[in-house]
Design a protein that fits this description.
644 residues; alpha+beta; 9 helices; 5 domains; single chain; eight-stranded antiparallel β-sheet; four-stranded antiparallel β-sheet
Amino acid sequence: MSLSGSFQLAGSTVTVSTSDSLNDIAANINQLNTGASATGVSASVMKVGSNDFRLILASDTTGATGFTLSGANLDAAGSLATLQLGATGQTNAYQSLQPAQDAQISIDGLSLTRSTNTITDALSGVTLSLKQADPAVTVSMNIGVDQQALRGNVQSFVDAYNSLQTMISDQFKFDPNTNTSGILSGDPLLTTIQSTLSNSLLKSVPGLTSDRNSLVMIGVEPDVNGQLMINENRFGTFLANDPTAIRDVFVAQGSSANNSLQFLTNGLTTPSGTYSVNVTQAASKAALTGATDLTAGLAANEAVTITDTGTSRQAVVNLTAGQTQSQIISALNAELSTDYTEQHQLSTALTAGGLPATGATTLSALGLGVAAGDTISISGTRRSGVSVNSTFTVLNPATDTVSTLLTAIQSAFNQEVGATIDATGKVTLTDTTTGDSQLAVGLTANNEGGGTLALGADTIVTEGRYALPAQAVVSGNAIAIESTSYGAGSGFSITQSANGLGIANQTVAGTDVTGTINGLAATGIGQMLRGTTGNVDGLALLYSGTTTGAVGDLTVGIGIAAAFDGTLDQYANPVTGLIQNSIMQEQTTFDSLTAKMDALTRQMKQQRVSLTNQFNAMQNTMSTLQNSSSYLSQINGLASARAA
């Protein structure tokens, strides 16, 4: 083909050499679509006619985002014009065989847009797989309970309960062969645990009708040995006709006549009952409302900077004179809802023969005296803040290319960046992940061989961030900016080059709900009010209203499984549980007995030493007496001999 040049595809540089065929170009593009920094674009060659072959580029993912394609070499006057990939408006402009677009779907009259044909976040627990589009066709769906899964969950509960009771009962069994019982036989705590669990099965759940308010009533009942079993007739009837009745017996639930009060979760010690809720402050969003009537449009150009208080993420929006209320809101929301990928660029442009360097350019071709053994220090931080410290060594400047250096940079950053060289010859690093980033890069040519290679200073081209939790909304003929969530933890500041919106530069925050539950202390986070003392400790509710005072009652029913959580925590909590307390008491008793045994052992040793010393003294005394007796006998014999 005898083509030579380069172009940018999805943030990566595609280099074409004079020896490359169309298939080679496609292969090079597909090579860039591998590894951690894959472009997400695949290439193929299509035969259109006997002498007409076309390069086809396709995004690997669905959605309107598509991919970017740019480069002066692709345009009509460029060296790669015959690839027919020129920009719109060029005589060789590329043809869009299939434009990138998002999926559009309507559910119960509500229009949704998604970038994928597999939708998992529209209906809770439901995955929609879109196969084809036909606006004239409406598909009806019946969503029901997975009866097999529900039966399996109940059976797992039954099996776990029976296994626990069997383990406890085994401790009480007497083995006539060894004349022994289990190690914990007769332990009062174990007996209490067994009876507590058994009694829990017989309890009814307040708030449920009498024909379905206990395990027995829904068909989960004990047999003559105290083991649980499923009554297929009763349980099967509920499973087929009213599976929610089975769920209600097991879980904790709550209801209120006030729709602004919603039960969230129970505490481990929350009993069933009715709880009065008193609100002293309703939760609010951080919000600022403009005072300027925008009917006639924005008076003058202005730059608006919104900074999220919690994350320091910034959104900068340039508004222009004459923009309408809806246009201003659209511009603000477009920027606030956008995720950005961090991109850095080194300031020095590399050239070869007066032209911008490409990935295929050898280091010697840069004309900067790069020599074998020269090193380039690679430093900085990865997106997570982890330090980077590596060294690239030039082996042969005549064969080592810019791409060789770029590969080393990617390795130093643990493949968390894509390293490329742009159309002007500047080294560019792009995060492989969108969102907040601490990426920083430093490339220092040490020029041990006396060369003059320099790559320049690190410049942030795009600051990576996630979308800001804020939005612009209509407020009469003006606009308002508000957080998307409630509470003191949500807030933002606004600064403007001019105040055309009627909003003074300031920082604003939301408020948390405050109040009590059954007169007991509670803390608020956003709209959630959670009890902190007594039997409301851990009981959490959502209050979405705006009025204060006695806002209503919440009736809470603690199902059998939910109650078991509290019972098990009471006994098995590793810090405060009764089993742990019993272990500590037994350990204390053991330590006390061990100390007494050690004291007695020391006394016995001391007594033994004392007795041994006394015995030795007696032996010495006996020996002395025996010697004296022998001596006296000898004297007596001598005396008798003289007398004779």
